[in-house]
Design goal:
Number of domains: 3
Oligomer: single chain
Bound molecules: adenosine-5'-diphosphate
Number of strands: 26
Mean pLDDT: 87
Helix content: 40-55%
Number of helices: 19
Structural class: alpha/beta
Distance between the termini: 31 Å
Radius of gyration: 48 Å
Shape: rod-shaped
Length: 617
């Protein structure tokens, strides 16, 4: 029985922990999808700041229109003139590729445009910027006279994500039917002498470089901003120190406006909390990301779900298989893994949703910890109840069994000490025999009731006539009654059949009879009757004894409770008998009723379901 109960408990524990696992993993996933994006991006920026990508120079350099260069153009020769002048010097240095992040769609001053056109003609691998207009329906390109000279036309869009921070660069943009690659990608392609970009659903191939960029995400890549600002030479510096042109030799040059007052596109990067950087620096950073060859790749949904599940599993396992400080230490490790895992992965170029991992770990460890705490408490309560039952058993053995034992002991002593006649010896031997049988029955009854209340015993299902049991009990109780000259008056007893455990039922009825005798003065009458009452039999034992107070009536079924009068009378026993009687009656589907008044006797009635003579209930 114990083993079966233990197995059931283990099963319910297992179910409990599996539920905690499900209840931590699934919400973690949902929360991660719906709420986590913002937190994930913040964590990403934080990691970016604490682990900014370093690496060798990748060959990009800015030729920037800063405030000072602008002031110069205000005097003469205008922005396009300034560009023409600077680019001429740049061309002489022999750059690898030149990307111009200035939209040249409008007609400018004819002389300046002509100068710019002339400068463009000298530049190798020229990429010009184009802009999406008309709500994304078409591209605005540079004037044909310029475009004709360019090797490619690249878009200059970046997508600021949560919190207005520019983390992603879409390498592809489509306006109408016209698809354009990003300015930086075109510059990269040309600088590497690649003719065509090869496409597959999950990546782009530019010469030897494979770029993990999905077609259904606009071929977006995460920009690896460098901690140090991109190397730059301003137009003003180049004008004042023409020898600086040497720095452009064999480099990929991004030309654009960095002056705060003039650059319309300024961006926040994960590295700059408030400081914004100009679009041209972003394009140079995209180029550096490509040229560096190390892309930041997002973990796949399956990987995220898998890792979160592992974390939740580990969190639950910590409490399912360990307890105390070991469980807490393991749970702590799981939490550390959840918090540090995304950082470690970031350092290895994998972006992992921080919030999903952390919530899976926290929900599982807290859930499993709480579950363990509750089950441990329940177990404690159960073992306390077991201890109490055990104590009662000891009580029962020491008190209730003492009477028959004393009788047996005394009788056997009589037999050995004195030379008794044959008849007396037989009488004493009979007494020893009957008392030891009673003892055995008592033990059996007690154990059965214990098992019944612990749910470990199925009630026997015998069918027996109530009269038979009653007569047996009366027979056993009569000698006791006679000693006090108490008479049993048996009234009408229905001819009914009871179903259940005959021995237990006998114990119950016998107990009521002996109580009636014990708590009645000598020379009184105890009435017994068994009236049918619908589907029940009302078996009543009425005495003319000491009776009980009303407030005591509710307590007499508690173990060890004895009324004051009973104790005074010197008859009170252990106070355990009625508690067993009640258990027995309840397990037989019946109930017990008591009426009593002090000095006026008591009436105990067992109301039991019965079968009629034909065996129907
Ligand atoms: P015990 O009789 O061994 O003390 P029981 O559980 O059978 O234990 O009874 C509990 C208490 O109920 C008794 O101690 C007594 O105070 C009271 N009691 C039981 N039966 C009677 C009765 N017929 N008349 C008066 N008091 C009774």
């Amino acid at each position: 029985m114990g083993r079966i109960a233990g197995g059931a408990m283990k099963r319910s524990w297992a179910i409990g922990y599996v539920s905690v696992l499900a209840a931590s993993f699934l919400p973690a996933m949902v929360v991660a999808v719906w709420l986590g994006a913002g937190i994930d991006e913040d964590a990403y920026d934080w990691m970016f700041r604490h682990h900014p990508p370093t690496g060798s120079a990748t060959g990009s350099i800015l030729l920037a229109v800063d405030e000072q260069s602008l002031m110069d153009t205000n005097r003469a020769p205008g922005l396009r003139g300034l560009l023409a002048e600077g680019l001429e010097r740049l061309a002489a240095a022999g750059p690898k590729a030149v990307a111009i992040d200035v939209i040249l769609a409008d007609q400018g001053d004819p002389a300046q445009d002509a100068a710019l056109e002339a400068a463009f003609r000298e530049l190798p691998n020229l990429v010009l910027a184009c802009d999406m207009i008309d709500d994304g329906r078409r591209w605005e390109d540079a004037l044909p006279r310029f475009r004709r000279l360019a090797a490619a036309s690249g878009h200059v869009h970046v997508d600021p994500t949560t919190g207005g921070v520019t983390r992603l660069a879409p390498l592809e943009k489509v306006a109408g039917q016209d698809r354009r690659w990003a300015l930086a990608l075109e510059a990269y392609r040309l600088s590497r002498g690649v003719k065509e970009i090869l496409e597959s659903p999950n990546d782009l191939q530019v010469g030897a470089l494979t770029i993990p960029a999905r077609w259904d995400e606009s071929r977006a890549i995460r920009i690896r901003y460098r901690a140090q600002p991109t190397e730059r030479v301003t137009f003003w510096e180049l004008k004042s120190h023409p020898e600086l042109a040497e720095r452009f030799r064999n480099r990929v040059v991004f030309v654009g406006v960095t002056a705060q007052s003039a650059a319309p596109d300024r961006h926040i990067t994960p590295l700059s909390d408030a400081r914004k950087i100009a679009g041209v620096e972003i394009h140079a950073s995209i180029f550096d990301t490509l040229a560096g060859g190390r892309m930041l790749v997002s973990a796949s949904h399956l990987q995220v779900a898998g890792w979160c599940f592992l974390l939740a599993l580990a969190g639950v396992a910590a409490f399912a298989f360990r307890s105390g400080w070991q469980a807490y230490a393991l749970a702590g490790l799981v939490l550390v893994a959840a918090h540090l895992g995304p950082y470690w992965l970031f350092a290895h170029d994998v972006i992992f949703p921080y919030f999903a991992a952390v919530s899976a770990a926290w929900l599982s460890t807290v859930g499993a910890g709480a579950f363990q705490f509750l089950t441990v408490r329940r177990q404690l309560r159960r073992s306390e109840a077991q201890t109490a039952r055990y104590q009662q058993a000891v009580h029962f053995v020491t008190h209730e069994m003492r009477t028959p034992l004393t009788a047996i002991q005394g009788s056997s002593e009589l037999m050995t000490r004195y030379n008794l006649g044959e008849e007396k010896r037989k009488q004493i031997a009979d007494l020893i025999n009957s008392e030891s049988k009673r003892l055995a029955r008592m033990i059996e009854t007690f154990l059965n009731v214990e098992r019944l209340s612990a749910g470990e015993l199925e009630l026997k299902q015998e069918t027996f006539p109530v009269r038979q049991v009653l007569e047996a009990c009366l027979g056993r109780a009569r000698p006791l009654a006679e000693r006090k000259q108490i008479r049993f008056e048996v009234g009408e007893v229905a001819d009914a059949l009871l179903t259940g455990d005959r021995e237990l039922m006998e114990y119950a009825i016998y107990n009521l009879l002996t109580n009636a005798v014990k708590y009645s003065p000598a020379q009184t009458v105890v009435t017994v009757e068994g009236r049918p009452d619908g589907q029940h039999l009302r078996l009543a034992v009425r005495d003319q004894g000491i009776g009980m107070e009303q407030h005591e009536l509710r307590k007499i079924f508690q173990k060890f409770y004895r009324t004051g009068r009973a104790v005074e009378s010197g008859e009170a026993g252990t106070g355990i008998g009625l508690s067993i009687v009640e258990q027995i009656v309840l397990h037989h589907g019946g109930r017990i009723e008591v009426t009593s008044a002090p000095g006026n006797g008591s009436c105990f009635t067992l109301v039991l379901p019965v079968k009629d003579n034909r065996g129907h209930i």
